[in-house]
Amino acid sequence: MNVEQCIADQIRASISTKQAILSDKGLMRNIAAAAQMIVDAYEQGKKTLLAGNGGSAADAQHIAGEFVSKFYFDRPGIASIALTTDTSIITAIGNDYGYDKLFSRQIQAQGSAGDVFIGISTSGNSANLVEALRMCGQKGIKTIGLTGFTGGEMDSMCDLCIKVPSGETPRIQESHILIGHIICCIVEEKLFGDLKPNQ
Predict the structure, then answer these.
(1) Half-sphere exposure of 72 toward its Cβ, with a 13 Å CA cutoff?
(2) What is the pLDDT of residue 1?
(3) Is there a binding annotation on residue 66?
(4) Does 62 show up as a binding residue in the annotation?
(5) What's the domain count of the chain?
(6) What distance in Å separates the CA atoms of residue 15 and residue 9, rounded to the nearest whole number?
(7) I want to staple 67 with a disulfide (CB 3.0 to 4.6 A). Which of 59, 72, 80, 132 is the partner?
């Protein structure tokens, strides 16, 4: 194995996926629309809920952390809950109702009409996210999906599905956190731009 070649190939593949996002006007509009959906929810005193499995669970927690703490500059925290973090809740639901209900049960308990749910899945077919989206529909919660290029089942279930133009899990996940960061940047600027320190 040529390690240097492997490193270069991985970096080039990541850049190529991000260039594909940059050149897709529809995808760029969806990212902007997702950010505005979240801004509208926060302006109405609502919150964001996020969920995913594995690496996507880490992405959900990462994005929630950016909202509650800060992204670029000091400002008030905004309400955001990653549904992947409370081991007692997760294991209770998994044990009592099954893994497919992991997120929908939490949304039923803690979600409110006007909130925004962000479901993250490279395939778009994660059963527990599909169940979560069904619950969001019942409760009047807006939905954003972050998926790979097909969108899977989530494509038709989300108010907005942001589909990364790749079928490779690492490339999709790298792009999901980039898109999450872009959304955080826009939301923070729109809500709190007047608090931004002079550059």
Answers:
(1) 19
(2) 85
(3) yes
(4) yes
(5) 1
(6) 10
(7) 80
- Is residue 23 annotated as involved in ligand binding? no
Beta bridge partners of 119: 51, 145
Give the CATH number of the domain where residue 20 resides. Answer: 3.40.50.10490
Q: How far apart are CA 90 and CA 7, in angstroms?
A: 37
Q: Is 26 annotated as a binding residue?
A: no
- Residue 181 marked as a ligand binder: yes
- Block means of pLDDT (10 residues each) for the chain, 199 residues, are 95 98 98 98 98 98 98 97 98 98 98 98 98 98 98 98 98 98 98 87
Reading the block at residue 63, the tokens are: 């994005």
- The range of the structural domain enclosing residue 21 comes to 3-195
Return the ∠ at Cα 110 (arms to 188 and 191), rounded to 5°. 15
- Sheet with 80-82, strands from edge to edge, namely 80-82, 48-52, 116-120, 142-147, 160-163
